[in-house]
């Protein structure tokens, strides 16, 4: 189905043409029409499937159909995102969709001075993309009012729950008009996401553009079993052997990221780092250099798993598996986007086997193992067999154990008496 069949405003259709959008993705086909009619929507779709257009296009069309003056210090559309990376990405993308429409699009998030954002907000904003914490600061300081909000979007709702932002989200939505339309988009659907939808929406429509919690069909998944201490060597060997370029590597902690940096420096592999200790400016520069192909590897923690849109990214490496299985879906969603092929490569130590089991259950399929020569680890099946044998080893009953102990005590006493007799004879 083509966008041209939706009978959109000429300015909006022109912008979509300029962005190279012609054919709709499954999530766009299913979500745009009910959202355009004003229905609340909970949409489940994997990353890289066109979710941003799925909620932005119907909102822009409705704003065009119902012109209204945006008052100073007020907002018409509020879009909440869990991370500043995602908020920045959404701001740039939505500006492209609205480029020929008379709407202002602004983004506010942490890492930037609040003073520099006050002026933008007090002038009034048609479409505001924000992280919950930073927006709440501005609301408390009376820099912005949400009382005129007509549309609310929660992007990556599951991530907002995981990161503990839901209290801030509730506080913000309580400030909005009671008659607003709510759209929730989530890459994974959990009971808590469904519960949140019930609280925030009225008779909402549920849309599933793909199998629940699925990963893109265009992504090939493989696992390399490896000892934790050998992961740096394996990574360097694979990157050189296969001539990988533009590799996004995820570690679970900032310390792991910094340790990998040391190894890459020794092997003279160009790289950048993106984690919570870096300033917003340095993270933006790191991403820009990586996108431009100036460096070969970008090392990131979970903070970068959402919102990164790197065109043509082929390789995502899980240097360490995520603590939550759902985060695996978000990490590898950086590759295989918009129909392109991608590779999700995971290094798994023996300690991470249980996390791997959780991931395979979540995505509904086993992941292919590749055993790299020189990096062999003990077979998990053998380990399980040993543990099982130990667990099922026959145990002596209590009476038998008592008898054994008594016999040992008697033997010890007898030996003691023998030693005493030997001493007396010597004397």
TrEMBL record:
<dbReference type="InterPro" id="IPR011545">
    <property type="entry name" value="DEAD/DEAH_box_helicase_dom"/>
</dbReference>
<feature type="domain" description="Helicase C-terminal">
    <location>
        <begin position="218"/>
        <end position="378"/>
    </location>
</feature>
<feature type="short sequence motif" description="Q motif">
    <location>
        <begin position="1"/>
        <end position="29"/>
    </location>
</feature>
<keyword id="KW-0347">Helicase</keyword>
<feature type="domain" description="DEAD-box RNA helicase Q">
    <location>
        <begin position="1"/>
        <end position="29"/>
    </location>
</feature>
<keyword id="KW-0378">Hydrolase</keyword>
<feature type="region of interest" description="Disordered">
    <location>
        <begin position="387"/>
        <end position="427"/>
    </location>
</feature>
<dbReference type="GO" id="GO:0005524">
    <property type="term" value="F:ATP binding"/>
</dbReference>
<dbReference type="InterPro" id="IPR001650">
    <property type="entry name" value="Helicase_C-like"/>
</dbReference>
<dbReference type="GO" id="GO:0005829">
    <property type="term" value="C:cytosol"/>
</dbReference>
<dbReference type="InterPro" id="IPR044742">
    <property type="entry name" value="DEAD/DEAH_RhlB"/>
</dbReference>
<feature type="domain" description="Helicase ATP-binding">
    <location>
        <begin position="32"/>
        <end position="207"/>
    </location>
</feature>
<dbReference type="InterPro" id="IPR014001">
    <property type="entry name" value="Helicase_ATP-bd"/>
</dbReference>
<keyword id="KW-0067">ATP-binding</keyword>
<dbReference type="GO" id="GO:0003724">
    <property type="term" value="F:RNA helicase activity"/>
</dbReference>
<dbReference type="InterPro" id="IPR027417">
    <property type="entry name" value="P-loop_NTPase"/>
</dbReference>
<dbReference type="InterPro" id="IPR000629">
    <property type="entry name" value="RNA-helicase_DEAD-box_CS"/>
</dbReference>
<protein>
    <submittedName>
        <fullName>Superfamily II DNA and RNA helicase</fullName>
    </submittedName>
</protein>
<dbReference type="GO" id="GO:0016787">
    <property type="term" value="F:hydrolase activity"/>
</dbReference>
<dbReference type="InterPro" id="IPR014014">
    <property type="entry name" value="RNA_helicase_DEAD_Q_motif"/>
</dbReference>
<dbReference type="InterPro" id="IPR050079">
    <property type="entry name" value="DEAD_box_RNA_helicase"/>
</dbReference>
<comment type="similarity">
    <text>Belongs to the DEAD box helicase family.</text>
</comment>
<dbReference type="GO" id="GO:0003676">
    <property type="term" value="F:nucleic acid binding"/>
</dbReference>
<keyword id="KW-0547">Nucleotide-binding</keyword>
<feature type="compositionally biased region" description="Basic residues">
    <location>
        <begin position="415"/>
        <end position="427"/>
    </location>
</feature>
<dbReference type="Pfam" id="PF00270">
    <property type="entry name" value="DEAD"/>
</dbReference>
<dbReference type="Pfam" id="PF00271">
    <property type="entry name" value="Helicase_C"/>
</dbReference>
